[in-house]
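Need residues for this backbone.
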């Protein structure tokens, strides 16, 4: 689906978003040549993966909120973000990831979701990012208030900061029904060893870490450890902070990508990640509803097999 088509689709909805809002400032991607196909036997639905801790099915494409959702209260700032959440839900996604580190993002998400009739369908993931037990409790209570929730779907220890202390609190909160799942996060390869150690202890339900078509360190041990120990995986930095789009700007997709229902470079990068069976969900950040629409396309259609994955990685390495 092209960006022009995305403008038509969203312009005809209740969002009332302008074409300029859809164009945004994010990097251009090649438009998809055809509508997004369906997945398996359920036409029009996004692929879901199982959360090992519960058996709950989670849609594979979500959205991150770092930088993009840290905005003020004006309509011009909030309207595109409302469009992002509306598009995410309409396309079958649910996961929105945030943190107290992200400025006003939690508050913005809470207010926007609270104004949507189905905003409670969002799978709200946020984090605790401080040291000390009481500081952590206070911060998590603030997150509940800002997100306008009585329970957080997933509470994660941000960048492993004082993780032993916070995981003790999170076990209690989970028992009390204040959080549904517990997790740990980091964005750097240097933290993979520590993440693996915690995963192997089975102390958490989720682990969030970086993985992309060029940064494949997680394949060495971390992804397998998560699968072996029943830990769901959320992937951050799928576009390497946008650097991947700079690499392919102006280049057409290889013709063979159509075999995997890939219609844009964004879908190319996301489908590579989602084709790894240990990945539960990927959360590319965006403030652009058109890009959200494009991202969700990675959750539909065929996924590359192992041979195609290596072909994709070799192609990118050759650029």
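Answer:
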């Amino acid at each position: 689906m092209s960006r022009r088509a995305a403008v038509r689709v969203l312009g005809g909805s209740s969002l009332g978003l302008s074409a300029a809002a859809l164009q945004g400032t994010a990097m251009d991607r090649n438009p998809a040549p055809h509508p997004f196909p369906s997945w398996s036997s359920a036409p029009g639905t996004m692929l879901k993966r199982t959360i090992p801790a519960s058996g709950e099915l989670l849609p594979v494409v979500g959205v991150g909120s770092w930088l993009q959702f840290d905005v003020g209260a004006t309509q011009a700032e909030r309207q595109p973000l409302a469009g992002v959440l509306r598009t995410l839900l309409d396309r079958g996604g649910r996961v929105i990831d945030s943190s107290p580190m992200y400025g006003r993002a939690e508050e913005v998400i809470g207010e926007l979701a609270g104004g949507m009739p189905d905003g409670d369908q969002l799978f709200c993931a946020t984090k605790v990012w401080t040291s000390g037990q009481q500081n952590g409790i206070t911060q998590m209570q603030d997150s509940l208030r800002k997100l306008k929730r009585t329970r957080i779907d997933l509470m994660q220890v941000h960048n492993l900061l004082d993780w032993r202390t916070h995981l003790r609190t999170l076990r209690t909160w989970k028992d009390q029904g204040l959080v549904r799942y517990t997790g740990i996060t980091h964005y750097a390869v240097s933290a993979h060893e520590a993440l693996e150690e915690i995963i192997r202890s089975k102390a958490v339900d989720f682990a969030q870490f970086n993985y992309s078509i060029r940064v494949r360190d997680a394949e060495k041990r971390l992804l397998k450890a998560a699968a072996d120990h029943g830990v769901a995986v959320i992937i951050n930095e799928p576009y390497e902070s946008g650097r991947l789009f700079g690499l392919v700007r102006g280049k057409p997709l290889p013709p063979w990508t159509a075999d995997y229902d890939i219609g844009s470079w964004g879908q190319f990068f996301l489908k590579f990640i989602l084709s790894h069976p240990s990945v539960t969900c990927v959360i590319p950040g965006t403030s652009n509803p058109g890009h959200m629409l494009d991202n969700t396309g990675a959750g539909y259609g065929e996924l590359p097999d192992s041979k195609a994955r290596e072909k994709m990685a070799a192609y990118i390495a050759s650029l």
